[in-house]
């Protein structure tokens, strides 16, 4: 599997998970029962695994995409910042999730499979980290929406096929 193919899979796998975590909160799943809490936790583990894999790939090989010849200097700079903010934002969400486990009063498990961290029992820190984690995730979701808008603008206004780069080949005829 090529790097680009792997990144497409990660990209399109993280998107529905992001939507899930935007729409479904831990309090929502707690009301649904233990099975929903477990499902939410498993989805979180998948999200974090993909995010950390994407960050590791970026640290090892840099960005896979280039800005494209039709972008002007400001749009090139925006492209540079946008993609890095996304990657580091995903890493930050994973990091604050780890800190939630670290500051918890009891052992938390990602998906019931992996212990998140040794709990230190710091309720005030846990509350603060929880707020940071939530705000960070919603800010990241805003960056994701802006990122999508940027690439749609490129595709429509500049006609540079920006959407074909990450879309599966089966969808190319619609773009």
From TrEMBL:
One of its GO terms (biological process) is respiratory electron transport chain. One of its GO terms (cellular component) is membrane. The chain crosses the membrane at residues 42-60, 81-102, 137-156. Keywords: Membrane, Transmembrane, Transmembrane helix. This is Cytochrome B. It comes from Thalassococcus profundi.
């Amino acid at each position: 599997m090529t790097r680009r193919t792997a990144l497409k899979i990660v990209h399109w796998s993280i998107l529905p998970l992001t939507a899930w975590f935007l729409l479904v909160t831990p309090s929502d799943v707690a009301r649904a029962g233990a099975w929903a809490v477990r499902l939410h936790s498993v989805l979180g583990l998948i999200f974090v695994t993909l995010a950390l894999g994407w960050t590791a790939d970026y640290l090892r090989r840099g960005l896979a995409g280039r800005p494209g010849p039709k972008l002007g200097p400001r749009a090139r700079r925006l492209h540079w910042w946008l993609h890095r903010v996304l990657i580091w934002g995903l890493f930050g969400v994973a990091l604050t999730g780890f800190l939630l486990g670290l500051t918890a009063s009891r052992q938390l498990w990602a998906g019931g499979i992996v212990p998140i961290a040794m709990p230190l029992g710091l309720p005030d820190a846990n509350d603060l980290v929880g707020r940071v984690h939530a705000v960070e995730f919603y800010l990241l979701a805003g960056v994701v929406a802006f990122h999508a808008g940027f690439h749609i603008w490129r595709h429509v206004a500049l006609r540079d096929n920006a959407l074909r780069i990450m879309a599966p080949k089966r969808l190319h005829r619609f773009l």
